[in-house]
Specification:
This protein has 277 residues and is mostly helical. It has two domains: 100 residues, no CATH class; 148 residues, no CATH class. The protein is globular and about 60 Å long.
């Protein structure tokens, strides 16, 4: 029975991932998300129901449009599969593998929603070099509401704390000595939201917009609201991973020193790691 629940949750994640693909495609183009059926970006053919089954339609169609035969972007199955896996991992993290309880429902819904927003931001920034304000606003509002609810309901559990990644790096990195936080969980996250926004704001100011974008500054606020005092370590790992990938791209001649590389995916990737591991 428990395995059937896991299968259901994974399939549910696939379906949410399919919807995220709609957001990733339409939001940067100013298209309506809720209106109109999905279509092939190349020939504009409206997709039939059997062409919309998450992951399985891609496999059945052999990665090509049924009409124009153009290749379907790998982004679609990747987003769906990633969402399904992350939903499962988040469920395990929040229930501690001991089974679902009613009190876990709200935290799970919140975490799944934040994961969905982060996945959409990851791929939109990767493809279009922008982080939509609408996604930042929704994520920030939900995080603030959840933090406020945690202040007033004793049985509501906090999320994203005591990350195994954080504990691991705290043992080996000198940054572990940084322990700025306040007693109130809500105020602690507000504090680090301000720190996240101010950090990127200063980078933009000193580099005159060449080092970071406004979207990164706004995401820094959201990142602080989600991670609280883990923000500092998350930023550190984001810059390290970004530097490593940047150097590899230059060595492989995929990018030059003057090329732009979106930083949002690194911020999102590290945030997701702190959330689920």
């Amino acid at each position: 029975m428990v395995y059937l629940i896991y299968v259901f949750l994974f399939l549910f994640g696939l379906c949410i991932g399919s919807f995220l693909n709609v957001i990733i495609y339409r939001l940067p183009r100013g298209l309506s998300i809720g209106k109109g059926r999905s279509f092939c970006p190349k020939c504009k053919k409206k997709l039939l129901w059997w062409e919309l089954i998450p992951l399985f339609s891609f496999i059945f169609l052999k990665g090509r449009c049924s009409k124009c035969k153009v290749k379907i972007s790998l982004q679609y199955p990747i987003v769906e599969l990633t969402t399904g896996i992350l939903f499962l991992l988040a469920f395990f993290r929040l229930t501690c593998g001991s089974g679902f309880m009613v009190r876990d429902l709200l935290p799970i819904i919140y975490v799944w929603t934040i994961i969905s927003i982060l996945i959409a931001i990851f791929f939109i920034d990767l493809k279009h070099y922008i982080i939509p304000d609408s996604l930042i606003i929704v994520g920030s509002a939900l995080s603030l509401i959840y933090l406020l609810m945690f202040q007033f309901f004793d049985n509501l559990q906090p999320v994203f704390y005591n990350s195994k990644i954080l504990i691991f790096f705290y043992r080996f990195l000198p940054i572990s000595s940084f322990k700025l936080q306040v007693s109130s969980l809500f105020l602690n996250h507000i504090l680090f939201a301000i720190i996240g926004g101010a950090f990127f704001g200063l980078i933009i100011l000193f580099t005159k917009g060449r080092g970071m974008g406004i979207g990164d500054m706004k995401f820094g606020v959201l990142m602080g609201l989600i991670l609280g005092s883990q923000l500092i370590m998350a930023l550190y790992l984001s810059f390290v991973s970004g530097a490593i990938v940047g150097i590899l791209l230059i060595l492989l001649k995929k990018k030059s020193l003057k090329s732009k590389v979106p930083f949002g995916p690194f911020l999102v990737g590290v945030t997701l790691l702190f959330m689920i591991l």
